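We modelled each protein-ligand pair independently. The example shown here corresponds to the magnesium ion entry; the chain sequence is given first, followed by the ligand as SMILES.
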Amino acid sequence: MPPKVIVICNRKGGTGKTNVAINLSAYLSSLGKKVLLIDLDPQANATSGLGVENRLQGIYEMMSQQISLNDGLILVRKNFWLIPANENLAGADIEMVDLPEREFILKKTINNLLIKKAEENFNYVFIDTPPSLSLLTINSLVAADQILIPVQAEYYALEGLGQLLETVKLVKENLKSNLDVLGAVITMYDNRGRLSEEVWEELYRHFPYYIFRSIIPRNIRLAEAPSYGKTILEYAPQSKGAKAYERLAKEFLINGVF
Ligand SMILES: Nc1ncnc2c1ncn2[C@@H]1O[C@H](COP(=O)(O)OP(=O)(O)OP(=O)(O)O)[C@@H](O)[C@H]1O
Ligand SMILES: [Mg+2]
């Protein structure tokens, strides 16, 4: 069975997209699933957060066919592969504008890679995206089977969510994509504040898709781990943050969507 391609996306910045990308991938791979994470953000936070520094060969070079498909792929942990980002990706949007089928470049790259690396039998391909609604992000939505939306438990959390869902609809209608909404994961939840609770209730009222029961708390260990290039499983496996990601990974698998 071909892997599910899941884009982790929210037009808002700092909602925990990269944190979810790294740590959900880490727990799924520790549970024996084969995971490929593509860092599609010029900020390259997923790349550095996994301890990978300054790679000249990454997703930009693969998409622009400057390197062979194999050369961008790094095995970063057991069962866990990364295609890194580097700063060249920052120019990709402008460079792609005049290309034919410019929205399909990432999809073609992933499809070719999966054919070439068929023996790896990946279970999941995750794409970590920048917060902007750029051509890169459109490429990620077109390439994906499903979108997972990290929603930060704060006052303006729902801002932009309607627009994101509208974009998903437009991509489906206009770009021959089968994109489905996998659901939302609530991040940085602080159970001491009433505000978090209100945001949560509002999300339940207005978001007509699955919301993961496993909520990611605001946890200092989760914020610290990336600066050591470590996943939470490596950095603080007993922390509340780690336990939450373990539950999320199990819920993701039990969910039966796959
Ligand atoms: N559950 C959490 N608890 C505490 N800190 C967190 C948590 N999740 C993420 N952070 C921290 O909050 C900041 C934003 O998180 P992250 O980088 O994952 O968001 P993002 O959505 O990927 O941001 P961007 O839109 O810039 O790509 C980072 O400093 C990160 O370490
Ligand atoms: Mg990010």
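The domain at 4-254 is CATH 3.40.50.300 (Rossmann fold).
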